[in-house]
């Protein structure tokens, strides 16, 4: 058998460069590149291997390890999991900086390969700089932090272990059910060790996501449940996008007259003006979708984890029978659902055929259309520009951005109050146009995520909506975007603190505390800060100033930051559903008594069980 002598690091990079995927009928590299911040632990091993790879596997330099992993995750999300990236760091803080990002990828079921450097496998120089010493277990390193937030974890103690570990990691990264972060901890001495590798290991491999057909019995039971429905509702989750099932969903909803509500991950599965699109569902949902959910007798949940924001903490559609169409049995059976385990597109096509001749009662379909039309009028009103001189709300800012946005633009956001307003009010044009990280609700994802989306789809305008709190947590990738020529338009909403949590604090009977900045606190000059990172930046005067600045920002070739002051006290009251946030059982004042009474009333409506 022919062999090639390489170091373990060279082998890893050559193997990754040989992996391929197919997108829109075109064969291309599975890995779009590797984000790397070098230090001891990877600079002498993976560093030279990446340099030698050149354009076969491009290397990108970032400014923060968590941020670069966020960018890699966003890249995979924008490509609907068809393409992905790897990230390598030094040992110690460089590695553990990525743990939060690993959790983001795990919760959102998104692929990213993490290659943190690790301590010496031979232990000769122990303890090395940045080494975590476990007094009773010398096999432990800081990288063990990745275990609970990785779908696959391995530590390479001998070079030849890569022959098993790398294919195993690729299996997880490309599997529609197991998909999530794969972590291969790579001791720095092992990276530099040589081995005679079988040449066959480096042959190009084409990866296609598995798309299982539904089981005949489960399909028949799901079809029977829907045929008996008088008030059916579809919930479209992120699995619709990852399966490329948007067309199948539009066909099914149109043919059978079933209204469609969208989760954060599923928003854009149907264009906002599709006749069956009732809008966002759940805690951050539209009045139309939540009204339908509360009255539905059968809910077809497609490609969704049914997390608490979707289900209104299991109280929104607690009386409905659930049918779970999902590629993963774990998710398909949630909330006691009748499972239909299948690829979303193939499951919908099969259901469509099984339900030939059936449609929802015309009165129910019309009720959905009427409620949706009423909601769209509310959206127009809520997002309209305020009177001159009035501090705008988040909703009014995103309304201005949405109106100015190119049709193929992509909006990126995460955490805080903005995702709620965006879920309710943003008008998404296609599956890629709405990019929210709301599974882990990770502050600091926004700008790095925008960078990843731009690298995935450089031809589309990428607009990042970010609050001042998230901006202060992580803004370094502005400099990366400028250096890479990956132009972003960043709209920074300054409400002087954590406005969203302040409102939650007050809504649960608490007094304002430790969230908003005091009046005496000096203002942050965000425009000056962004300019210091290389961006074009300006503080705009209200909505009129924003509307004037946006076209110039879109025309610019350089990352542009537009700062606008907003009202921290106001959020959209229309729509929404209850969210289970525990309230004290020993209320100390009237506000807490009211909050506790409301809490107990809503808890009584929750669906119990699996």
TrEMBL record:
Signal peptide: none annotated. One of its GO terms (cellular component) is acetolactate synthase complex. Keywords: Hydrolase, Thiamine pyrophosphate. One of its GO terms (biological process) is isoleucine biosynthetic process. Residues 219-351 form the Thiamine pyrophosphate enzyme central domain. The keyword Ion transport does not apply. Pfam families: TPP_enzyme_C, TPP_enzyme_M, TPP_enzyme_N. Transmembrane segments: none annotated. It comes from the Bacteria. The keyword Hydrolase applies. Residues 47-131 form the Thiamine pyrophosphate enzyme N-terminal TPP-binding domain. GO terms for molecular function: 3D-(3,5/4)-trihydroxycyclohexane-1,2-dione hydrolase activity; acetolactate synthase activity; flavin adenine dinucleotide binding; magnesium ion binding; thiamine pyrophosphate binding. Belongs to the TPP enzyme family. This is 3D-(3,5/4)-trihydroxycyclohexane-1,2-dione acylhydrolase (Decyclizing). It comes from Neoroseomonas marina. The gene is iolD.
């Amino acid at each position: 058998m022919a062999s090639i002598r390489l170091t373990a690091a060279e082998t890893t990079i050559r193997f990754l460069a040989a992996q391929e995927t197919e997108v829109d009928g075109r064969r291309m590299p599975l890995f779009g590149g590797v984000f790397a911040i070098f230090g001891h632990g990877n600079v002498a091993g993976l560093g030279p291997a990446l340099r030698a790879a050149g354009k076969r596997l491009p290397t990108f330099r970032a400014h923060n390890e968590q941020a670069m992993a966020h960018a890699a995750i966003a890249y995979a999300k924008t490509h609907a999991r068809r393409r992905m990236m790897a990230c390598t760091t030094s040992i110690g803080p460089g590695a553990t900086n990525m743990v939060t990002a690993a959790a983001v990828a795990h919760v959102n079921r998104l692929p990213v390969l993490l290659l943190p450097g690790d301590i010496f496998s031979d232990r000769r120089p122990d303890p090395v700089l940045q080494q975590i010493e476990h007094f009773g277990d010398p096999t432990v390193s800081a990288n063990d932090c990745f275990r609970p937030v990785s779908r696959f974890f391995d530590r390479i103690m001998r070079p030849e272990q890569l022959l098993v570990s790398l294919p195993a990691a690729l299996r997880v990264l490309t599997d529609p059910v197991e998909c999530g972060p794969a972590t291969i901890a790579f001791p720095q001495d092992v990276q530099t060790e040589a081995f005679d590798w079988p040449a066959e290991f480096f042959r190009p491999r084409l990866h296609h996501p598995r798309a299982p057909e539904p089981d005949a019995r489960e399909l028949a039971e799901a079809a029977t449940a829907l045929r008996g429905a008088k008030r059916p509702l579809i919930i479209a989750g992120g699995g619709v996008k990852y399966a490329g099932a948007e067309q199948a969903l539009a066909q099914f909803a149109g043919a059978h007259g079933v209204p469609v509500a969208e989760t954060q991950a599923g928003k854009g599965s149907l264009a906002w003006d599709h006749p069956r699109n009732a809008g966002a569902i759940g805690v951050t949902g539209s009045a139309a979708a939540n009204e339908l959910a509360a009255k539905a007798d059968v809910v077809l949940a497609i490609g969704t984890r049914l997390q608490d924001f979707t289900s209104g903490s299991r109280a929104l559609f607690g009386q409905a029978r659930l049918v779970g169409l999902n590629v993963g049995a774990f998710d398909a059976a949630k909330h006691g659902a009748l499972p239909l385990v299948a690829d979303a597109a193939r499951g919908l096509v099969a259901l469509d055929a099984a339900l030939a001749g059936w449609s929802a009662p015309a009165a129910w379909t019309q009720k959905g259309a009427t409620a949706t039309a009423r909601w769209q009028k509310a959206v127009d009103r809520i997002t309209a520009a305020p009177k001159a001189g009035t501090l705008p709300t988040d909703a009014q800012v995103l309304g201005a951005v949405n109106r100015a946005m190119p049709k193929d633009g992509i909006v990126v956001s995460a955490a805080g109050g903005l995702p709620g307003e965006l879920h309710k009010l943003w008008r998404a044009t296609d599956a890629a146009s709405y990019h929210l990280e709301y599974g882990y609700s990770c502050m600091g994802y926004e700008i790095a995520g925008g960078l990843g989306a731009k690298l995935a789809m450089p031809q589309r305008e990428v607009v990042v909506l970010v609050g001042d709190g998230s901006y202060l947590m992580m803004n370094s990738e502005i400099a990366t975007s400028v250096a890479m020529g990956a132009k972003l338009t960043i709209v920074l909403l300054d409400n002087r603190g954590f406005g969203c949590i302040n409102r939650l604090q007050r809504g649960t009977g608490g007094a304002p505390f430790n969230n908003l900045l005091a009046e005496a606190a000096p203002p942050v000059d965000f425009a000056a800060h962004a300019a210091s990172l290389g961006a074009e930046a300006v503080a705009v005067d209200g909505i009129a100033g924003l509307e004037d600045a946006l076209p110039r920002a879109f025309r610019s070739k350089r990352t542009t930051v537009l700062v606008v002051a907003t009202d921290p006290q106001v959020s959209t009251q229309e729509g929404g559903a209850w969210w289970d946030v525990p309230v004290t059982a020993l209320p100390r004042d009237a506000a807490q008594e009211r909050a506790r009474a409301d809490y107990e009333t809503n808890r009584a409506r929750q669906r119990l069980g699996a």
